[in-house]
Amino acid sequence: MKKVYSILLLLVFWVGIISVPAQKNVGKTSTKDAQIEAKVNALLAKMTLAEKLGQLQQLDGDWGTGEARPEQLELARKGLLGSTLNVRGFKGANDLQKAAMESRLKIPVLLGFDVIHGYRTQFPVPLGESASWDLEAIERAAHIAAKEAKSTGLHWTFAPMVDIARDPRWGRVVEGAGEDTFLGSKIAFARVRGFQGDDMSADDRVMACAKHFVGYGAAEGGRDYNTTDMSEQRLRDIYLPPFKAAVDAGVGSFMTSFNSLNGVPSTANPFLWKTLVEKEWKSNALVVTDYNATKELVNHAIAADEAEAAMKTLNAGVDLEMVSKAINQNGEKLLKEGKITMATIDDAVRSVLRAKFRVGAFDFKPIDEAKQKASILTDENRKAAREIAGKSMVLLKNDNNTLPISKSVKSLAVIGFLANDKRNMLGNWTADAKPEDAVTLMEGLKNKLGSSVKLNYAMGCELKCTDTKGFDEAVKAAKNSDFVIITAGEDADWSAEAASRSDISLPAGQTELIKAIHSTGKPYAVVLMNGRPLTINWEAENSPAILETWFSGTEAGNAIADVLFGDVNPSGKLPITFPRSGGQIPLYYNALPTGRPFAEKDKYTSKYLDIPNTPLFPFGYGLSYTTFKLSNMQLSQTRIGKNGTITVSVDLENTGKRDGAEVVQVYIRDMDASMSRPVKELKGFQKVFLKAGEKRKIEIPIKVSDLGFYNAQMQYVVEEGQFRVMVGTDSQNIKDEMSEFFTVVK
Ligand code: NOJ
User: What pLDDT digit, counting tens, does each position of 466-480 carry?
Assistant: First the structure.
């Protein structure tokens, strides 16, 4: 019997070998894909080893001018440069592609750039934009960014960042969609669609890049580039789905992450690239390393030198090396030593060429300067930026309808450095945006109010706010005005790459300034500008109104003025938890239960001695100038099969006096599973606009197949048994009557 099994196994193994093509050619392919594959193979057959290794190299052009460096032009002329980052624009793109057209095989250079939340027209930073919970708006913003970028000769953006981030100390929370896997996956899909559309070679589309694969957002201590260590279950349940959503949207590329995951750096991790991306997801997307990440394998101490680093990168299934030159310079030697194979090199080259065909790089037409200028920062794009910025703002507090401000005020004090600053409005990663394009809050207020309202501006202090010299002037401005707007927050560079903070409070001086304004007794609103959750306990307790505006982009000032004066009713919802203290981190709504949940009177339960377990502001939270009421929750059935879809219906009523939008959120809890499951998980939502007084029945379908998880055997399972469904307008305040149960049956 054993022998029969061995023969069978051998046969399966053998059939496996001969039926798996050498190249990454996976999944279903269309005729277009097949044509591209044929062209790729024909070209590959003509290439020398040096030309192949050239294709696996991405070099860093001059960020400031957008031009390739002289040595890069030379490489391109010889057909020895695959790709660049930062080369763009009329001169940069044209010169480099012309050089490539002089090469033997005339293979164009693939031009990539970080177009993260806009090219020239900036939209809110991605975390802020995610607070809109408006997938159509998010897709539109990416589409506009793609269109502007494409007009400058770019083929490829290194976005979206789809890393789940549960640690706001990590500065790059600003670049993603926040803490939730379901919301993050929907947004990943929308962003990839926005960048790529159906055809990434179109004039208004670029290739997207799902980054950073994977676990980058789970760095220990929230410190950028630091180690990530987690169970495979957590990886699969929480961190992978947004990447899979990007694949489902057809993403053309991936980027490795700087971190090691469970001891193996992503750039040298075959489990990630070969097992997950290639085999499980059947993706043949191009895989680029992050900046110098191959060379850094030596720092990770998993490669003795750059040659070994190159070997591990290629053998892991990574294709293109960003900036460091380990593959290019050691490829030939590694091949001779038998440490890499020609099939591996060819496979990587195919990925690069395939991407070039997909983005239409071979059909290069010189960039027309006038056309380029006419395509960027158009009135239409600015209008979209203003609209989307308005949708992304989150009203955190509004005692006694402090906001909106009445348009009949005669004078307004505007306090704070950020109220009068252009650069910070754009946020971090601003591609080719120019600070002078940005509208400050002061300008936005002037645009809205004209000369009818006297604006009394006082800075108060700089962002770090280390002295109180300007406080008196600020207090005086407040006393002389009917209403005070005070801005507070971060410098855009504090929420960014390499910008982790151990303490995520406002600089103490900023809170002191707010206290000084508070003590004048004037009505006031705090306008926050920041790229991460902040621990703003004093403000949350004492300030009458707080509006979270993130860094909302080119049209920031106009959009904030729209919301402050009620022309736009805020409808944003937090995509990430705001903790009370850095000591609570990580704090996220979809945590696993504990055997000893907090109980007031029982010492031996899970808690802190000094602060509550609860967040300052929970995931999904955000107020409006109107009020909404949920009622009449119903489930389409109470027993359902594993392939079924259950519909949750609820009546939503706008019970206030203004039109507005609310996000109805559906959370699920698996009540009894073979593994401990989160206390709740978002599984559906709908953003609904209702006129004042309007009531509407909302139906949100939930696929039972989405309710599964990876079990101890790493199989995705939907288990039979009872589930609880909860409907709310944030993740915490869910009323008893908004909770029902259903049972999943075979
Ligand atoms: C490093 C960052 O981690 C990555 O996100 C970015 O795309 C590259 N640098 C290129 O700028």
Answer: 999 999 999 999 999
Tokens of 386: 């203003």
Q: For atom 1 of ligand 1, which residue has the closest CA?
A: 291
Residue 18 pLDDT exceeds 80: no
CA of 703 to the centre of ligand 1 (A): 36
Cβ-contact 228, 220 below 8 angstroms: yes
Q: Rg for the chain (alpha carbons), in Å? A: 27
Give the pLDDT confidence of 289-329 residue by residue, as tens digits: 999 999 999 999 999 999 999 999 999 999 999 999 999 99
Residues having CB closer than 6 A to ligand 1 are 85, 114, 158, 211, 290-291, 497
Amino acid sitting at position 129: E
Is-contact 128 550, C-beta < 8 A?
yes
pTM attached to this predicted model: 0.96
Residue 76, judged by CB atoms within 10 A of its CB (0-12, 13-18, 19+), counts as buried
Give the mean model confidence (pLDDT) for residues 446-468. Answer: 97
Each domain of the chain, given as residue ranges in start order, spans 49-370, 384-584, 628-745
Atom of ligand 1 nearest to the CA of 257: 3
Question: Using omega within 30 degrees of 0 as the cis cutoff, is the peptide bond preceding 404 cis?
Answer: yes
Tell me, rounded to whole angstroms, the distance of Cα 549 from its chain centroid: 17
Residue 158 CA, ligand 1 centroid: distance in Å? 7
User: Residues with catalytic annotation?
Assistant: 290
The string of DSSP letters for 360-427 reads TGGG--PPPHHHHHHHSS-HHHHHHHHHHHHHH-EEEEEGGG--SPPTT-SEEEEESGGGG-SGGGG-
**By C-alpha distance, which of 260, 322, 256, 247 is closest to 291?**
322
Q: Of 274, 323, 316, 264, which Cα lies nearest the Cα of 295?
A: 323
Q: Is the pLDDT of residue 4 over 50?
A: no
The answer regarding whether domain 49-370 maps to CATH 3.20.20.300 reads: yes
Task: Read off the pLDDT of residues 379-393 as tens digits, 9 standing for 90 and up.
Answer: 999 999 999 999 999
pLDDT at 100: 98
Q: Which residue puts its alpha carbon closest to atom 10 of ligand 1? A: 291
Q: What are phi and psi of 476, to 5 degrees?
A: -65, -45
Nearest CA to ligand 1 atom 3: 290
CA 356 to centroid of ligand 1, rounded, Å: 20
36-62: b or e for each residue (b if 16 or more CB lie within 10 Å)? bbeebeebbeebeeebbbbbbbbbbbe
Residue type, 425: M
C-alpha 93/C-alpha 194 separation (Å) is 23
Q: Report the CATH number of the 628-745 domain.
A: 2.60.40.10
**pLDDT exceeds 50 at position 642:** yes
Q: How far from 555 is each of 160, 387, 423, 494, CA to CA, in Å?
A: 21, 9, 12, 21
What class, spelled out in words, does domain 384-584 have in CATH? alpha beta
Q: What is the 3-state secondary structure (H, E, C) of 637-696?
A: CCEEECCCEEEEEEEEEECCCCCEEEEEEEEEEECCCCCCCCCCEEEEEEEEEECCCCEE
Measured between alpha carbons, how far is 518 from 512 in angstroms, rounded to an integer?
A: 10
Provide the token pair at 641.
Answer: 């099969």
Report the nearest-CA residue for atom 4 of ligand 1.
Answer: 290
